[in-house]
Design a protein that fits this description.
Layout lengths: L7 H4 L4 H10 L1 H23 L5 H28 L1
Helix pairs in contact: 2-3, 3-4
Amino acid sequence: MQIEKHTLINDLPEHHHTIRHLKMNDNHFAKQFDQYHDVNKEIHHIEEQNEAVSDEYLETLKKQRVALKDLLFTKITETEKSL
């Protein structure tokens, strides 16, 4: 089974330039971006390897990924509005 990767660039390709700009110029955004990708990588590894973890743990990771993505998306759209 093919597991879909939820990288921020894959999920928000129309915001690629803004994401790149923020990663290079906003340390807080860059830190949250890295956290998002660390959580995403762990989720992907668990799903890809059929790793034995509790459903609660995986659900917590997925909720964390969504929360980080919401924060990042908010920053992206706020930045684009200000340009």
